[in-house]
Amino acid sequence: MSIYADIEKTLGDFRLKVKLEAGDEVLALLGASGCGKSMTLKCIAGIVRPDRGRIEVDGRVLFDSEKHIDLSPQQRRTGLMFQNYALFPNMTVLQNIRAGARREKDSAAKERKIQEIMDSFGLAELSAHYPWQLSGGQQQRTALARLLVSGPDILLLDEPFSALDSHLRFRLERELAEVIRDFGRTVILVSHDRDEVFRLSDKIAVMSEGGIETFGEKTAVFARPATRSAAILTGCKNISPIKKLGQRRLLALDWGMELETAEDIGDARYLGIRMHDLCFGPGENAFFCRLVSETENPFSYTLMFVNGSGSPVGLETDKSVWESLRCGETYIRLPPEKCVLLK
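Given the sequence above, the corresponding C-alpha cells read:
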C-alpha cells in the first residue's frame, strides 16, 4: 500500500498546507499541539474536507478537488483511531468490534473474523464488558481490534498513548509495534513525543504552523533536523544564534564560543548542540567552563556550564563519569561533526 496527499485547508486564521508520501511503512507526524497533525489525519479519513488537493491510497483516489471526487469516510477504508479511542459507551467489547465489521455481509465469516481478532488481542474474556469497565490498555486494544476487523487499507493513529498513564505506555507501545508489523501496510502516526516517534516510525515529517518543515528517514531527521523548530521537537536543548566567521567557522553568540564545523555553514542562522554530544577534556572546539548547576536524574546528570559571561550550555552524562570527575571548572568540547546547523 502507499499514500499520496497534497492538500490545503483554511480554518479561520489557520492554514494547513501539506504534501506527503509514504509506502508500506510508518510515517510519523511530529509537532507541537495546534500545528495541524490531527487535521491532516481527518482530511485523509474524510472527516474534514480540504479546500483543494488530492489524496490517493494505493492508487485509489479518495479526494480530488479538481475532479470533484470526495469519497465518504466509509468508502475510504481508512482506519482512524482517535486520542480517546471513541468506543461506543453503550456497547460491550463484542458489540464495539462487531460494529467495525459491518462491511462483511457473510454472517458466518463476520463472526469468525470477530472471534479471531478478539482472541489475538486477548479480548475474548472481556467480550461482555463495557468501555467504562476496561483499563486504558484494554480500551486501546478494543479500539484497534474494531479498526482492524474492518479491513482498512491504511491505519491513522492520532496520539495513541495520550489517554494512558505513563507506566502503561512502554508495554502498550510494544504491543502496538507488533500490531503495526502484522498490519504490513501504510501507517501514519501522530505524536508530539520524540522518543515514541523514534521507536515506532520509519520516516518522520516535522510539522509547524500547518506545514511540513523537515521530512526524511528518522535517523537522518534526528541527526540533521535542518530547522530550529525541528531541532527543538527532536530534543535539542542547546540552540544559539550564530555569526558566520568563515566557511566552516562560526561564533555561537549566546555562549561566546568560536567553533569549527565539519560542513559548510551556508545560510544557517543557528547552531544546535545535543546535550549528550558534549565531551569532557581538551581538544578541538574545547572551552574552559565553570559549572553553574547540577541536576541528578535516575541514571545521569544534567550539568550546566558557562564560558565566561555567556549563557549556560547544557551537558548530559552518565552518573559514573561525572562522579569520577566532579569539579567546579573543566574543559568541555564539541566535536565538529556534532555541530547541528539550523535555518
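The first helix runs from residue 37 to 45. Try to locate this feature in the C-alpha cell string yourself.
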